[in-house]
Every structure is written in structure tokens, then in C-alpha cells.
Amino acid sequence: MKIKSSEFDRSAPNLKACPNSPFPEFAFIGRSNVGKSSIINLLTERRELAKVSVTPGKTKLINFFRINGSWNLVDLPGYGYAHVGKNERADFNEAAADYVERREKLRLVFVLIDSRLEPQKIDREFLAWLEGSGKPFALIFTKADKLSATQVQTNVAFFMKTVFAGRAEPPRIFTSSSKTKQGRLEILKFIDSMLAERK
After folding, report:
1. Topology of domain 6-197, CATH
2. Less Cβ around it within 10 Å: N or C end of the chain?
3. How do 71-75 and 62-67 pair as beta strands?
């Protein structure tokens, strides 16, 4: 897939405010500071399409980006972010959960995982919930340039063995780096194949 156009459409605070559009959607979500904005900018090759922040949890809304005029890339608020009150956090997580569970145009959720870390409790809890929702998802292991290729492979294998042990069909996995552009073509090819299935 070649990205010919990518533009911000709108932000929505909840499911009701999401756009009523005919376009299929691919959502991206992950723990705070996992590099979600960087991956979105990598995929679209636009440095500032999604705002990158050093402050965890900067994204508090559901952000929609129109890609090639034919599908939506959806930036979901990260889970477990800091610097907010308990009430705000509850509302925030409810909005993302409502979107995942009830959005009819959602084709797939990409869950971003930091390749440098051992399986985190919050990632495991979110993935367990996501599996329970019945929505299809794939994993993107980010920041692969921070480690050797061998260490990344070792960490990914350990994560999959720990979190998805016994699964008949574990989710599709990708490794990525916004610095080296690793994973970009593979992820876009995967999205393209899913779009082609429904044509």
C-alpha cells in the first residue's frame, strides 16, 4: 500500500461523537509512552500528523485520520496514563472500551507493546479484556532500534509464550521502529490485505 494522502478528520470524546462514515477503521492503542504517535507518523510518513509528547497520556480523545480517502486510522487514548484524576481516567477508559466493543466499522485493533520490557501487568490485563471482547487484533512491538535484533526476537518470543500460551491461534505480530522505519511496509501490507478481503 502506498500512502498518497493522510489528513486529520476529527477528535471525539466518546462513541456517540465518532463520525458517521462508511470507511473501515483500524485502531491503534497501547500503554502510555509506548510510541503510538510515532508509529502513526511513521506509517503516514508525516512527522507531525499525530502529536508526539514526552508527557504520558497526552492523547485523551479518539482521533480519526483519513487515509487515501478510503479508510480511517484511529488513534485511541493510551491505557494507564498518568497525571489525571480517577474520575477522568474512568471516563477515558470507558470511551475507548465503548469504541472497541461497539464500533461497527472497526476492522482490527493494533496493540502496541514496548519491545524492551518484560510483559507488563497492564498490557496483560488489557489484552485479556480485548480477547474477551471478541474483536480481532494484532500486536506491534515498538522501539526495536533500542535493542539488538536478537534481543528483540527473544523478548517478543518470551512475551508471546507468557501471554498467549496455549492459544490455538496467537495474534499476528510485527516489530517496528519509527527511527529506522522497520515494520512500516509489513503493517501497511497487512492492512491492505484486510481491506481487499471486503471488496
Report:
1. Rossmann fold (3.40.50)
2. C
3. antiparallel
